[in-house]
Amino acid sequence: MELLEIIARVLASLTGLLHVWIFIMESVLWMRPSIYRRFAVPSKEQATQLKDVMLNQGYYNLFLALGSLFGAAFFTSIDGAATVLLYSNLCIAGAGAVLLISKPALFRAALIQGLPALVAVVTAFLSL
């Protein structure tokens, strides 16, 4: 296994685990004040109104996480796994870019979300 592939697999794994955590926050723990405030929702009333939307969004994050983790685990051993890693992480990097453009105040969150995924894509592509 070459260095670029290792970097891609590690970053894709970290990205996947991060998005599992995001799923848990959005879909399982959403109504905790410490969680919804992390998403810039100031009140329980607003969090309640967003509960169904966040549940759905959380599952999107979970499915992207599973793709990233699958791609990282089986990058060279299953046909198509590298493609799944690339696609999942491109989606995650794209979502980070959308967050940055739409809400520059969330620069840190966008960077945490998007940068590891983007580097995973670049290193995975270069290792193929």
Describe the 3D structure.
Pfam families: DUF1304 (PF06993). It comes from Leptonema illini DSM 21528. InterPro entries: DUF1304. The chain crosses the membrane at residues 6-29, 59-78, 84-102, 109-127. Keywords: Membrane, Transmembrane, Transmembrane helix. The protein contains 5 helices and no strands. It has one domain (3-127). The chain is mostly helical and 128 residues long. Helix 1 (3-28) runs antiparallel to helix 3 and helix 1 (3-28) packs antiparallel against helix 5 (107-127). The protein starts with a helix and ends with a helix. The protein has helices at 3-28, 33-38, 44-73, 81-102, 107-127. The model has no long low-confidence stretch (mean pLDDT 97).
What can be said about this structure in brief?
The chain is mainly alpha-helical and 128 residues long. The protein has helices spanning 3-28, 33-38, 44-73, 81-102, 107-127. It has one domain (3-127).
Low-pLDDT parts are none
Instruction: State the helix count.
Output: 5
Structural class call reads mainly alpha
* Global Rg: 16 Å
Categorize the overall geometry: elongated
Q: What's the oligomerization state?
A: single chain
Q: Tell how many strands the DSSP assignment holds.
A: 0
Roughly how many Å apart are the termini?
11 Å
- Major sheet characteristics: none
